[in-house]
Amino acid sequence: ERMSVIEHAKKELAAINFGEEDTKVMVEILEKFFEQWDSGGAVSVVAPVLMRCIARKPLSPLTGADSEAAPNPLVSSLLRACGRVPGGPGGVLTDGFGGTDWDFFPALDGARGRLPVWGFGTVVESRHHDVPVGQRAYGYWPLGSELTIDAGRLDGRSVVDVAEHRTQLPSPYNRYIFTEHDPAYRVGFEDIQILLWPLFYTSFVVEDFLDDHAYFAARSTVISSASSKTAIGAAFLAQRRGTGPVVGVTSASNLAFTKGLGCYDIVTTYDAIESLDRDASCYIDIAGNRDVTQRIHHHFGDQLTYSMIVGDTHWDAAAELQLPNVGPKPEFLFAPVQIAKRTKDWGRDGLEERVGESWRLFGDFAQQWLTSDVRTGASAIREGYFDVCDGRIAPSVGVVCESLT
Predict the structure, then answer these.
(1) Contact 171, 159 (CB under 8 A)
(2) pTM score, two decimals?
(3) Taking a C-beta distance cutoff of 8 angstroms, is the pair 176, 154 a contact?
(4) Which residues lie below 8 Å from residue 156, measured CB to CB, with a gap of 6+?
(5) Helix residue spans in 55-106 (DSSP H)
(6) Run means of pLDDT, 10 residues per run, the chain, 405 residues
(7) Neighbour count for residue 103 (Cβ, 10 Å)
(8) How far apart are CA 152 and CA 133, in angstroms?
(9) Helix (H, G, I), strand (E, B) or coil at 257
């Protein structure tokens, strides 16, 4: 049974293009587990226990016993929230970890969810002595006037919401970082952090992964959806690295904006992909458009040294073609693995220092071209949501939502 579980894991990881290195890490974790446990059936027993222990939740619900642990509710008023909307009306908002963003703040009917956004909140009521009223924090919030959380793990810099429905969700989304201890926070840059920080961290991991592999011997880097904020961050860092020309591929409507950024050495449109020089290149697929990926692979052929899948900004584009059989097999970037590696390489403080320095440089750069469009109140926020989904917001504008409370 042990081998059947591992082989099943390998098969499933291959099916989602998890990547050879990341798959190796996951298989090693399974093998170490089976050194202590002799059957795959143990997973179903140990996994729930492990997840609750990590979240510092009582184990009594697993046995049916009454819990003696009293929650520490933290009531926080949402003051400003991010207008980064990763999906369209009626669509599924994915969080990049196999779940959906609707799971974080489910509605009472259980069938719907509250729109999640990145932003700042201020504590207005607290029953936890380590979280005083007036404390300001950055994190993942429902788009509304307030949020009540179970204040769990504190490390002096942040608090984690250990509410039952969030314990199975990715931990970075459950953490609320106090601004006075937040390395990303800068006075006067709140809107920049609201709109760009989560995306920039992905940009940092993307570029760091490529640098960690010497850019796979590529002499240029090609990035799709070049006007998207994650792409801009990756291009900014890659250009500073100086490993070769950074090439952006974008739509005709965003061509002028993308060229004007200055972080791409070459910018072209999707219909002109075949005009690019066939030099040794690595490809960062942020668009998630399989047709674009096919054309990139067929154009560069054996000159394509690596192909990375990062995102799905073209959420409304149908995947009309299968993954390409020309060039390297596209691999999904699983950010937590690279973050864990760099934490081991540099230590937690070393990683945060490197990310923080890059973020400060990028924040100064972003202020030159990004404008905040603040929407206040439910009606204006709803209008802003559909403006984003329907493509009525220029790439140089970010929608910031503000509640009336």
Answers:
(1) no
(2) 0.75
(3) no
(4) 181
(5) none
(6) 71 75 79 63 58 55 39 39 32 40 79 83 85 89 85 84 83 88 91 93 96 97 95 98 96 96 98 96 89 94 95 51 75 87 92 94 96 89 88 90 73
(7) 16
(8) 16
(9) helix
